[in-house]
Amino acid sequence: MIDFAFLLDTLLKLLSALPTTLTLFFSSLSLGLLLSFAIVGMRVSRCPLLSYPARCYIMIFRGTPLIIQMYLIYYGLGQFPVVRDSFAWVVLRSPYGCAVVSLALCTAGYTAEIIRGGLLSIPYGQIEAGQAIGMSRLALLRRIIAPVTLRQVLPAYSTEAILMLKATALASLITVWDVTGIAQQIIQRTYRTMEVFACAAFIYLVLNYIIVRAMRWLEHRLTPHLRERPVHTPTKAKLDAGSNPKSLRSSL
Amino acid sequence: MTTIKIKALTKQVKFALIGVALLCASVSEAKEWTAVTIATEAAYPPWNMTLPGGTIGGFEPELMADLCARMKLKCTLQAQDWDGMIPSLQAGKFDLIMDAIVITPEREKVIAFSRPYAATQGVLAASDPELIARAGVAGEVVKLTGDAALDKPYIDQMRTLLKGKTIGISSGTAYTQFVETNFKDIASIREYKKSDEHVLDLQAGRIDFSFDDVTFFSSVLDMPENKSVSMVGSKIGGPIWGPGEALGFRQDTPELKAKFDEALSAALADGTVKRLTEKWFKADITP
Amino acid sequence: MDTLQMLSFGNTGWGLALLKAIGMTLLLTVVSLLVGAVFGSLVAAAKLSRQPGLRWLGDSYLVLFRGVPELLVIYLFYFGGATVVSAVGHWFGATGYIGMPPFLVGALAVGLLSGSYQAEVYRGAFMAVPRGELEAALAIGMGKFMRFKRVLIPQVMRYALPGLGNVWQMTLKDSALISVIGLVELMRASLMAAGSTRQYFAFYIIGGIGYLLLTGLSGRIFNIAEARVQRTQRRSPLQH
Predict the structure, then answer these.
(1) Could you tell me the Gene Ontology terms of the biological process aspect for this record (chain A) (predicted)?
(2) From C162, which residue of chain A is nearest by alpha-carbon distance?
């Protein structure tokens, strides 16, 4: 009943598009992260001239679906000769460039909000304590704000990374040959919708599983103080504490 | 010799199987049709399109209205994107599909076709004046047979023109296949979900050529936004595209297909189809 | 044809079609969010449970619905759903095709996706509740239900609200993908109008503004709600 030869063939064809999907993912995620630092810096600034544009940016890119942003950047902007004559056309000319730009712009808005959420979660007392012992602004950022924010932000950011990987599927709508694009091409030839989509889904699942695992490992490493303390086995607790003096200090 | 024999044999087996399938189907589903649901893309002018306000118009909706009146059937048109149309038909969401669907051997494996109601030609279009000058504005029609050896001279001519260029096509059409088999090795190919999207990219200069139906280009190139685009090279017609555009049915509804075949024959015979094609395409494109 | 005429409410304009489409998007999102709330809280509870079987079940749900692109989930539900429902129908003696209306398929698919986001929000909020407070409640002898009502829920709500605002926006965004299965919501209406009038830029912008209105208004509602639950807390110096 299940045509394994067809499934294997489909899987191999889809895997040939994996490099496109992965480079799309990594380039747009890292560009988006860089951009988000700038945006969040502006957003938390006390100067309204800086914070207001950042607010607008976040509102626009979080407030509209990526699919419409992508169509707007690809087909919408391409309509205007002004855009076609500008330096941006080097990037916007290719579907791949447009996909990276729209994915990065979109994720930057989301990431900025995630980082801001992390900043807000820092207990006021910790910042006060830092100021009280005479830390400079930079030291405050490096020693207190950044590490606490990083911990707080990780779960949400891992969600965002996964959303991004899934969002790369939309690039197929603007003629990029990624995994979903190839899947649709195979369906156009064979009309075997369920089998091909299931194969594609499987590939995305494996990729996301890897991301989830990596992020969870990082989260675990960074939050030793949040782990449940072993209650019933004091000897083991002592052992743990002995082998890891840092965690002992933080739990005291 | 042996291959021919085997081919003939498999053909017989196929016919036998189809016969059995028809018999089974007609026994199990001899249903009386009173209403049918028809899928159309509603975005392939002038065949079918969405008018302001959201209603569906065009050549095919008008032809369908005529056919349904002949059969006294209640017909409902529903918009469906092309890439999901054949799967949706198979899932049973629609009873038949009408979207300028060209009969091809691959499609005949999965769906059944009525008799064709139109036969059209494919053509290249370009926007860059230099390319238009090189290829020449489209005029005469070249008939291709679909036999690689016979068509080679003209295909080779096209290959020199297209070498190193980017070609845009709609995905999953008979033209997609033609472009892929003949030019994949020398040009880069981009597939679009809708035909108007490759025209848009042609103007934007993202692609050098696009390949689509003559009727489609004629209708959209009239618009002022598309004045830079024109059809180039020769219009390609002939047996390479198969018998032409037809209605698509599920393979288990032969009685519905028979009903529509009869109505189509009548509409072709009394000149209704010819009149409608002349109205919408400004040319007689009946098969 | 100028933009104003294209947006008119008469037979030649797209105004009414777009307005209807906004209503459809809103309805779809609300229903999806409710479907997601049910699945999300169930999955969060399963993931926080002490039983490995339940935890595994919760994990599988999350891996599946957070791992597969939304577009594929919607396609799989649309084509697969109809096949399954028809098969079940035939089992009970029905004949022919039993369709699932696009709205139902859409609400279910987007709802299950939304559920996978909501589960993480609820779980994160639960984890953010200081252990000490739960221990304190236990120490003064509160019962399970009392702890739930007095300590857990108010705090979880506080921590979950910003996340839920996010999920609402995400669900709204995901609802745009339902356009691929033919439901005429805001995205599809914008594409239809753009293709029909050839005014791509204008209609994508108009569609975008429609989404901005929806998310802007609902974002304001979430902000008010957040301010209400936050008012007992000290403000961080980074917030304005």
Answers:
(1) amino acid transport
(2) A117
